[in-house]
Amino acid sequence: MEKIGLFYASTTGNTETVAEQIAGLIGGEAVDLHDLAVDPVSSINDYERLIFGISTWDYGELQEDWDAIWEELKQLDFSGRRVALFGLGDQIGYGEWFVDAMGLLAELLQERGAELVAPWSAEGYEFEESKALTEDRSQFVGLAIDEDAQSGETSERVERWVPEVLAAFDI
Q: In this protein, which residues make up the domain named Flavodoxin-like (predicted)?
């Protein structure tokens, strides 16, 4: 079986923790975990099925490691690749920009040919605005996680989302 590449970057450790939880549910034999602060962007090319974890900082900004590789990421071809996204944000403190970085990443990936899979319902969240909403605004482009206001929901959300990702990946 072709492995899934799970790529993330984490400043506080929250995105890393969620990435590890996702990898644990998928199973170590089926997924390779990559920290973008350490692993080269070019290693993304080794996978047809990808999961990206990104957090939003301050007023809708990219996490620093994602920001550092953004231009390099724009050069990759994602045609024919299925990509699932998960994003972390703070819907109370930064409700005008909730998981915006995930929306920015989704836009870049789609421009580069990726097929985004496993959107997530926007129900159960309280925020003002998000660039990560689908066109009809009923879903996020990927799993939205809020470790600040809804950390108690994280495990259940991940456990419900991972089977959707695997089904979309035909696994």
A: 4-166
pLDDT in tens, 81-122: 999 999 999 999 999 999 999 999 999 999 999 999 999 999
The predicted structure's pLDDT at residue 1: 58
- What is the biggest distance separating any 2 CA atoms in the chain, rounded to whole angstroms? 42
Q: What is the pLDDT of residue 28?
A: 83
Residues 6+ apart with CB under 8 A from 12: none
Nearest partner of 154 among 117, 116, 132, 125, judged by Cα: 125
Q: Looking at residue 91, what DSSP letter applies?
A: T
- Quote the CA–CA distance of 23 and 63 in Å, as a whole number: 21
- Helical residues (DSSP H) of the chain, grouped into ranges: 14-26, 64-73, 100-111, 154-168
* pLDDT greater at residue 42 or residue 2: 42
Annotate 28-53 with b (16+ C-beta within 10 A) or e (fewer).
eeebebbebbeeebeebeebebbbbb
Stretch (H or E) spanning 9 = none
Domains identified in the chain and CATH numbers: 4-168 (3.40.50.360)
Tokens standing for residue 5: 């590449």
**63, exposed or middle or buried, with CB in 10 Å at 0-12, 13-18, 19+?**
buried
